Amino acid sequence: MYSERPAAGLPQVIAWRARKLPGDGPARVLPDGCMDLIWHEGEVFIAGPDTSVQRHPARPPGRTFGLRFAAGTGPQVVGVPADEFTDRQVPLDQVWSPAEVRRVAESAAPDVALLEVATARWQPPDLALVEVAARARAGWTVDAIAERLGLSARHLRRRVKTAFGYGPKTLTRVLRMQRALALARDGVPLASVAAVSGYADQAHLSRDVKALAGVPLTSLVVT
User: Fold this and answer.
1) Which residue ranges form the domains of the chain, and what is each CATH number?
2) End-to-end CA distance of the chain
3) Which of 49-58, 92-101, 172-181, 201-210 has the lowest average pLDDT?
4) Helix 98-105 vs helix 110-120: angle between axes, to the nearest 10 degrees?
């Protein structure tokens, strides 16, 4: 069981919750260009940005609450560049003080506690990074994004890697896949999905999604 909603007062952040039931299998987590701050049955950790599908072992039944930070907003809250967490899950007490983490871990309302600590550390999103994410999701090339922002390719790479956890080429692939998946799940024909999302053709869409997700797009649409 899973649900999500915009986090109150925090733009570009989604608050989500999940409940694992007995018999649920391992989770398949697709790359999305985001960092998450997660509470699971008293454990609090950072889930860094993934470069490919992650197949996490099945956790024991229980509750999970999280905040998903998009558009490069996560490092501002966590206080550490995103590329230090790429493809990793790190206990939060390795980054924050144990006392601060305990207040979240032991809270009777962990979803509220997560939101409170994120709000206390919040900084307004960098509008340039918000635009990078929007252009990448729309299928713009790295060169076009750099030109739009008036940045050199080297400067763009440095800023994107710090904020998103990987370089702009990987970011564009990941966010383009996420947009394609959303369109396909809305019933848009795959040929149209490819054209709208910035792929050369439907075959390119299929190859790229399978490389990132580990399964064909059609498998993801029906799950």
Assistant:
1) 2-120 (no CATH), 127-221 (1.10.10.60)
2) 13
3) 49-58
4) 140
